[in-house]
Amino acid sequence: MQIIIATKNMGKVREFEAMTESQKAPLPIQWLSLRDFPEIGEIEETGSTFRENALLKAQTVANITGLAALSDDSGLQVDALGGAPGIYSARYAGEPKDDERNNAKLLQELQGLPFEQRTARFICVLALALPDGQKFFAEGACHGFIAKEKAGDGGFGYDPLFYLPFYHKTMAQLSSTVKNSISHRASAMEKMFFLLRALLFPEPEPMRKPNF
Ligand SMILES: O=c1[nH]c(=O)c2ncn([C@@H]3O[C@H](COP(=O)(O)OP(=O)(O)OP(=O)(O)O)[C@@H](O)[C@H]3O)c2[nH]1
Ligand SMILES: [Mg+2]
């Protein structure tokens, strides 16, 4: 089976590739990415939820290529901002999307807010679109706080501001191995691996119907 990782974000691609490579029992899947399909441009995200946008991206790529496509729509929800930037995380500070400006805007919006009130979470919704029209979803979340200043240079996006009290570190200070075990993307992907395993190796039919 071939699956295209349907994202233009190289930070996400790196994480997906690390997660598929570190699987204990790798599935018989050849993973491709949009680097293999340079003719596919940016897909407009017109949905109003992570799920709608994820489906839009996966179905567009599956329709164009005739192959299975796995997309990721993700973002940061900050409680003190009523859940913003949410689905608008990539372009929080406007076009063109820019992590530096997004982080600066976030710090500005939360200026003066005490640490305990800076609760936030990353959300990731994965959509798998098959060429025959079937679709599957998996979701993950990761809870933390928005730090008062940036720290670390790993990951991407808001990682230098996303503080995990359990580790006393920002997401950008964690090794990629740890980020790829505990992140919103890791937890969604873990569920997606179960779905993929069920798709590739369906359970045999039971010999007889259960008695209820
Ligand atoms: O610090 C971060 N660590 C993460 O692990 C993470 N995951 C998502 N995000 C933020 O949310 C936007 C997604 O927006 P998004 O799902 O539309 O993706 P994107 O536009 O970057 O690429 P594509 O997949 O749409 O092609 C990203 O740009 C980031 O700002 C993250 N920030
Ligand atoms: Mg996007």
Automatic annotation (TrEMBL):
<feature type="binding site">
    <location>
        <begin position="7"/>
        <end position="12"/>
    </location>
    <ligand>
        <name>substrate</name>
    </ligand>
</feature>
<feature type="binding site">
    <location>
        <begin position="156"/>
        <end position="159"/>
    </location>
    <ligand>
        <name>substrate</name>
    </ligand>
</feature>
<feature type="binding site">
    <location>
        <begin position="184"/>
        <end position="185"/>
    </location>
    <ligand>
        <name>substrate</name>
    </ligand>
</feature>
<feature type="binding site">
    <location>
        <position position="74"/>
    </location>
    <ligand>
        <name>substrate</name>
    </ligand>
</feature>
<dbReference type="GO" id="GO:0036222">
    <property type="term" value="F:XTP diphosphatase activity"/>
</dbReference>
<comment type="subunit">
    <text>Homodimer.</text>
</comment>
<keyword id="KW-0546">Nucleotide metabolism</keyword>
<protein>
    <recommendedName>
        <fullName>dITP/XTP pyrophosphatase</fullName>
        <ecNumber>3.6.1.66</ecNumber>
    </recommendedName>
</protein>
<dbReference type="GO" id="GO:0000166">
    <property type="term" value="F:nucleotide binding"/>
</dbReference>
<dbReference type="InterPro" id="IPR020922">
    <property type="entry name" value="dITP/XTP_pyrophosphatase"/>
</dbReference>
<keyword id="KW-0378">Hydrolase</keyword>
<dbReference type="GO" id="GO:0017111">
    <property type="term" value="F:ribonucleoside triphosphate phosphatase activity"/>
</dbReference>
<feature type="binding site">
    <location>
        <position position="73"/>
    </location>
    <ligand>
        <name>Mg(2+)</name>
    </ligand>
</feature>
<comment type="function">
    <text>Pyrophosphatase that catalyzes the hydrolysis of nucleoside triphosphates to their monophosphate derivatives, with a high preference for the non-canonical purine nucleotides XTP (xanthosine triphosphate), dITP (deoxyinosine triphosphate) and ITP. Seems to function as a house-cleaning enzyme that removes non-canonical purine nucleotides from the nucleotide pool, thus preventing their incorporation into DNA/RNA and avoiding chromosomal lesions.</text>
</comment>
<keyword id="KW-0460">Magnesium</keyword>
<dbReference type="GO" id="GO:0009117">
    <property type="term" value="P:nucleotide metabolic process"/>
</dbReference>
<dbReference type="GO" id="GO:0005829">
    <property type="term" value="C:cytosol"/>
</dbReference>
<keyword id="KW-0547">Nucleotide-binding</keyword>
<dbReference type="InterPro" id="IPR002637">
    <property type="entry name" value="RdgB/HAM1"/>
</dbReference>
<dbReference type="GO" id="GO:0009146">
    <property type="term" value="P:purine nucleoside triphosphate catabolic process"/>
</dbReference>
<keyword id="KW-0479">Metal-binding</keyword>
<feature type="binding site">
    <location>
        <position position="179"/>
    </location>
    <ligand>
        <name>substrate</name>
    </ligand>
</feature>
<dbReference type="GO" id="GO:0035870">
    <property type="term" value="F:dITP diphosphatase activity"/>
</dbReference>
<dbReference type="GO" id="GO:0036220">
    <property type="term" value="F:ITP diphosphatase activity"/>
</dbReference>
<dbReference type="GO" id="GO:0046872">
    <property type="term" value="F:metal ion binding"/>
</dbReference>
<dbReference type="Pfam" id="PF01725">
    <property type="entry name" value="Ham1p_like"/>
</dbReference>
<feature type="active site" description="Proton acceptor">
    <location>
        <position position="73"/>
    </location>
</feature>
<comment type="similarity">
    <text>Belongs to the HAM1 NTPase family.</text>
</comment>
<dbReference type="InterPro" id="IPR029001">
    <property type="entry name" value="ITPase-like_fam"/>
</dbReference>
<feature type="binding site">
    <location>
        <position position="44"/>
    </location>
    <ligand>
        <name>Mg(2+)</name>
    </ligand>
</feature>
